[in-house]
Prior knowledge:
Layout (H helix, E strand, L loop, with lengths): L2 E6 L4 H11 L5 E8 L3 H11 L3 E4 L5 H7 L6 E4 L4 H4 L6 E4 L7 H8 L4 E4 L2 H18 L2 E4 L2 H10 L7 E8 L17 H4 L9 H9 L1 H14 L6 E5 L5 E7 L4 E5 L5 H8 L14 H4 L28 H17 L5 H12 L2 H4 L9 H19 L2
Parallel strand pairs: 1-2, 1-5, 2-3, 3-4, 5-6, 6-7, 8-9
Antiparallel strand pairs: 8-10, 10-11
Amino acid sequence: MKKKIVILGSTGSIGKTTIKLLEKDKKNFNIILLTADKNYVELIKQAKKLKPKNIIINDASKIKYLKNKLKRQKIKIFLNIKNLKKIVKKKVDYTMCAISGLVGLAPTLEAISFSKNIAIANKESIVCAWNLIERSLKKNKCKFIPIDSEHFSIKELLNDSKNYQVEEIIITASGGPFLNLPLNKFKKINPLKAIKHPKWKMGKKISIDSATLMNKVFELMEAHKIFKIDLKKFKIIIHPNSYVHAIVKFKNGLSKILVHDTDMKIPIFNSLYEKKNKKITTKKIDFKTLNNLNFAKVDTKRFPSIKLISKIPNYNSLYETVIVSANDELVRLFLKKSISFLKITECLNKITNLNQFIKYKKIYPKNLSQIIDLDETVRLKTRTLSII
């Protein structure tokens, strides 16, 4: 029987990687829904290749064009990603949530209700609303699959181990494009340089987060929530080659590492074919690679964002939304060339220290609207402070 598949954000980096894997094995998959924000050209290509039953575009100006281009296909075309349950009326086997930013939270929560398995490649949703996601997973008997290479690796390394057996979990960071750039040249960093990651092919937002190392701060927060392990047990180290994604040290003296190529198709492939004997073609990791793994401590002068870790509560709170929203807005401003690269972390530190927002450390996220309202408040304050 064919697996029924939904991809939210099919035209983004993770979405396109998932699509490539599905294209190679069409006979085993039935695509129920693909969604895109504005990239109608890529969505049309995907629709013609995979012939999904439904597609959604958020850009109203492109609806007529889509209907014209796909008029010979038996595909239903919808506007706006809201009310997913009206489109997907029966349970699907697998949903990939690949919409970046907090705008992906509402669709993710809705998708859980009609999914047997859900892969979430959205850091912001997990960081800000893990308690809401977890509650919905239990209610709808939906299985969560971590997709980030680090969390995928931690899951594989922990296997059936108990949390009390873990002494330390190390998450690796490539260091991004400016790992060896002299500090006196940071003032001249522009968006074009910052999005050129030396190892991974990613979207602009995540590429900037990699350059500041905020992506690792978020990944640490995610891992803490997903695996329910104390924040103090996590550590970030620099590993420029990016072959090792996580290391788990156990109290019994053993340490486990997981090595795989720098390609997101590996965790995605394993999430699609979980427990099935399927082969994937990847670059060969030989002795030369293993002999040059190279690890180093994080330089806090180069990556001051790491200092934010000390501010993170060891429990679910709305303060995580403050960090996520402020960072997201600052990255947006940097990409527009409204602020400098150095101002991202500088302003983020300033905003997260405001009494107006520190109080949210004591407030538990109860619902989606609470998070969305705070997101808007933080973004407004961030825009005000960053241009001073």
